[in-house]
Amino acid sequence: MAVDYGSYQDLVIEKREGIALITMNRPDRFNATTSRMHNELSRVWLDIARDDEVRVAVLTGAGDSFSIGGDYSLLEESLGNPEAVCSFLLPEARDLVYNIVNCDKPVISAINGLAMGAGLAAALVSDISIASERARLSDGHMRLGVAAGDHACMIWPILCGMAKAKYYLLTADWIDAREAERIGLITMVVPHEELMDRAMEVARRLANGPQRAIRWTKRALNQWLRLGGLVSFDLSVALEMLGFLDADAQEGYRAIRERREPQWPSLGGSGPERKG
Predict the structure, then answer these.
(1) Cα–Cα distance between 254 and 261 in angstroms, integer?
(2) Domain boundaries, the chain
(3) Class in CATH terms, 11-245
């Protein structure tokens, strides 16, 4: 069956020759994920899976960024709010990852700039990740003060090894595209102006290949990710959500907004909210 994507607002889906080009479309906000975009990113893969007109999906960002992660509005809605965390943030964070993993059709990410948060999760869980040489990646959970839970504990050790995964997840350091390729975190790097041509070239090759063989190979390979889900992802995403209810996350958010170093309550100090 063909799928009508008219209900999507923050994602633009264009279909051509068996390929669905999915664009995160908030360029004025560097494609930061609002609650609506977060929901759309979690469910679009179900529509891709059942759309008979689509054989491959390509995910990218509008403008100069891939996605810088959660919008302030999403963070404000979630911090200290058990209802929001339990009713949508937790299930959508889980579904975003598992719905890409369980979609039998290949997913390619074309990482055109900064990539963090839910956007980074989608980029790295994709089957093939192609980055512009201008791209920079960071799992920024430590800046907010919550566990690295939305994908990283499941897939980073598989992609780049435990030593590199621990370093980058615990420090939230930035990784440029060449280093990300070197350590195996992404598939390849290309000149910025060649990014979309290269991504679509790979997509066409897969769209015109033996469909059952391609999909069954993805399914078999992703058994490693499903195993990682059982071993670490389900726990890590739950611990991340628990962190949204903690004082550290609220201080981390204030520090990000105020462009200052955080004073973590978990250190036993007197964060700004305790002064006076």
Answers:
(1) 10
(2) 11-245
(3) alpha beta
